[in-house]
Specification:
The chain is α/β, with parallel strands linked by helices. The chain has one domain (2-107): Rossmann fold. Helix content is 52%, strand content 19%. The protein has helices spanning 10-24, 35-45, 61-73, 82-86, 93-107, and strands at residues 2-6, 27-32, 49-53, 76-80. Helix 2 (35-45) packs parallel to helix 3 (61-73).
Length: 113
């Protein structure tokens, strides 16, 4: 399983990368620090999921990126950040991995590589 991290704050990006990689054994793509960088990485690396800071670059930019990744590339996206927390949308790395695995099981694609 590969997860794209989209986070402009270096400390947050490293924390997420460590949680996915070291603790869960998930391959991390990125981190990307902008919408453009994230979209290019998604095209090149074809991740299974993306964790996107909803506050990326400007208000709503992360949400727009997530919508684009889901619509154009069928990448499952999870929003994180202050605005996401305010709206009750929070996903830790374990929830992301679990949700992607559940989705794969429903779709009949269980390969975790």
């Amino acid at each position: 399983m590969r997860v794209l991290i989209v986070e402009q704050k270096t400390l947050h990006a490293h924390r997420l990368t460590d949680e996915f990689d070291a603790e869960l054994g998930v391959s991390v793509v990125g981190p990307a620090r902008s919408s453009g960088e994230a979209f290019l990485l998604a095209i090149q690396q074809q991740p299974d999921a993306a964790v996107v800071n909803v506050d990326l670059e400007s208000c709503g930019a992360g949400r727009r990126l997530a919508q684009k990744l889901e619509a154009e590339m069928r990448i499952t996206c999870f929003l994180v950040g202050d605005c996401a927390s305010d709206q009750g949308v929070t996903f830790g790395p374990r929830k992301v991995v679990s949700a992607v695995r559940d989705q794969r099981a429903r779709n009949g694609t269980c390969d975790d590589s």
